[in-house]
Amino acid sequence: MQNLIIIPADARNAIVAAAAMTDEMLLALIADGDRGAMHTLYARHNVRVYRFILRMLRDATAAEDLVSQVFLDVWRTAGQFEGRAQVSTWLLSIARFKALTALRQRRFEDIDQDDVMDIADGGDTPEASLDRSNTSAILRTCVDRLSPAHREIINLVYYHEMSVEEAGRLIGIPQSTVKTRMFYARKQLALLLKSAGVESLAA
User: Fold this and answer.
1) Are 181 and 147 in contact, with CB atoms under 8 Å apart?
2) Which of the listed CATH numbers 1.20.1250.20, 3.30.1360.120, 3.40.50.2000, 1.10.1740.10 matches domain 12-105?
3) Secondary element (H or E) of residue 29
4) pTM
5) What is the CA radius of gyration of the chain?
C-alpha cells in the first residue's frame, strides 16, 4: 500500500485560494512578501518563460539559470508592476532583457536579411503548411537559422500566440516594424524550408 501525503486543511485551502487568484493579485501579495504567492506564480509561468529564453539562447543550462534570475527579479520588484500589460507579458519582457544581455555577452552578431529572395508570403502559420510528420524537426531547425530579430518575431507571434500589438510592446518597437519583421522573417523561413526540401509555404 502506497504512503499517502496528508496536507493540512488550512494548507489545502491556501493552495486552492492561491490557484484561484489572478496573476495581478498574486503580484500584489508577492510585493508584500508572500512566498506562497511567489510559488504559485512560478508554477504557473516558469515553463513558458523557460521555453521563451531557450528559443533565444538555444542553451538549456543558460536558460534554466536565467529563469531563476527572472523570478528573483519578480520577487524583488513585484511592487513596481504598473499593470500596463499582462503579467505574462511583463515576465517575458524581463526574460527577454536577460536573454539579450546574455547574447550580447556572447557577442552574438545579427545577420543582414536585406537580400533575401522574394518568396510568396502565405497566410497560414508555418506549422500548418508542413507535412505533420516532419513539422517539428524541420521547422525548428529552420527557425533556429533565422537572425535573432526574425527568430524572436516568429517565436512571439506563432509559438507564444501574441498579437502584433503585444509583440511590439514587449520588444519596444512600433506595430508597423513588427509587421515588417514578420514579413521578412516568413520570406527567409520559406527560403530555408525550400533548401530543406519543402517547396513552399501553402497559402
Assistant:
1) no
2) 1.10.1740.10
3) helix 23-31
4) 0.60
5) 20
